[in-house]
Amino acid sequence: MSKLLRNEMAVAALFLSPSLIGFTIFYLIPFIIGVLYSFQDSPGNGSFVGFHNYESLLESSSFRKAAANTFLFTSVCVPLIVALSLLFAHLLNQRLFIRNWLQTAFVLPLVVPVASIVMMWQIVFDWNGTVNEWLQSLHWGRVDWMKSDWAIVVLAVVYIWKNIGYNIILFLAGMRNIPKEYYETAVIEGAGKFHQWTHITLVYLTPTMFFVVLMSIINSFKVFRETYLIAGDYPHDQIYLLQHYMNNMFLSLDIQKLTAAAVVMVGGILIFVSSMLVIERRFRNFME
Q1: Which pLDDT tens digit goes with each residue over 127-173?
Q2: Which pLDDT does position 218 carry in this prediction?
Q3: Better-scored residue on pLDDT, 257 or 229
Q4: What is the 3-state secondary structure (H, E, C) of the chain?
Q5: CA–CA distances in Å: residue 155 to residues 45, 136, 150, 216, 238
Q6: Domain boundaries, the chain
């Protein structure tokens, strides 16, 4: 190994060390401690109880409801936000006269503080809010959005509105990196717009799409902040998510169920992400 390469690696390690130290202290070590707690009957000097905490967790109706709601929310909202992001990115890639305004409108939610987001959606979906006033003007009944089956729809709208801009940026970058020669060749060979879209755009956007799906899944777990601020500790059954369950276990000091639920959730995410990475790697090898 040359001296120059060693110096470059030393500089890289120096710049990475603050982030690695912070990640280790504030994330990795607490998670390892949490895994150990999940196999004990009490934190600290508790006795080893094996998988008893996990068995109790799976027997809990609250956990099963939270897990089912989280899975439903993610499985519905992630494909929806990916499809909408791809559609809007395609539109913004065209020469629209309002393209710059639309780009700003989609990106703006990324920089809006969570407190402002919550206040805005409370104004929109409150009992005396904008939507209910509009429904009242049409002589329809008011809807208690956050305390009815419509709560999951409100949560999906907030999630998509908050995160769609980031996905659009990624898709736009991917579209603009596709060589124009491919489209010109397709036109010469008589391929239509739909054929170009399916055989060129979608194919070359596949690596970007994998990344967008992963980020959308991660962001779907971050929607707890908005839900908690809008609906509180115990929201409607439709939007009672895993994060609500773990937060309530923390407030009741049931550390064993809290850590067991966290380990189960992280394990599920890791399995899914690993599967996505394997599929993406195989697709990339196929393309090469």
Answers
A1: 888 888 888 888 888 888 888 888 888 889 989 998 999 999 999 98
A2: 87
A3: 257
A4: CCHHHHHHHHHHHHHHHHHHHHHHHHHHHHHHHHHHHCCECCCCCCCECCCHHHHHHHHCHHHHHHHHHHHHHHHHHHHHHHHHHHHHHHHHCCCCCCHHHHHHHHHHHHHCCHHHHHHHHHHHHCCCCHHHHHHHHCCCCCCCHHHCCCHHHHHHHHHHHHHHHHHHHHHHHHHHCCCHHHHHHHHHCCCCHHHHHHHHHHHHCHHHHHHHHHHHHHHHHCCHHHHHHHHCCCCCHHHCCHHHHHHHHHHCCCHHHHHHHHHHHHHHHHHHHHHHHHHHHHHHHHHC
A5: 41, 22, 9, 14, 10
A6: 60-287
Report in angstroms the alpha-carbon separations of 50 from 47, 233, 261: 9, 30, 15
Class of domain 60-287: mainly alpha
**pLDDT higher than threshold 60 for residue 1:** no
Question: What is the model's pLDDT at position 200?
Answer: 84
pLDDT digits (tens, 9 = 90+) for 29-82: 988 998 998 888 887 777 888 888 899 989 999 899 999 999 999 999 999 999
